[in-house]
Amino acid sequence: MLHLLDAVAGRIPTLAMTGVTSAPVARRADAVVDLGFGDEAALKLRGAARAWTESYAAMEYRHGPISVSDESSLVWSFGDPPAGLECEVVATWAMFTADARDGPGRFPGPRPAHPPLPGPSGPG
Q: Of 60, 68, 93, 109, which has the fewest Cβ atoms less than 10 A away?
């Protein structure tokens, strides 16, 4: 990528989309879009694992994407998650983890028992 940016420098406007604005690609491009760490992590995982990945702000995730989370989902919070988010995610059967750099972290381990569902057949 760097050799391509060098080859077109001054002739063709270039744009780098990255989550690491201090990276060499960002210094060589004419313009930079900062994807943010979560967006960059989702992009890298998508490319490496050929898996469906998305990134959302925690509160945005709560108001939409959480509805498609299930037992095949992993929700990874970078930084401290908002109060209650872990419980909401686990209630969907998805696994939840938080970034270990910001504390002890909660990494996927044995799947916890699913919380009972309210309703006619559930507790209450």
A: 109
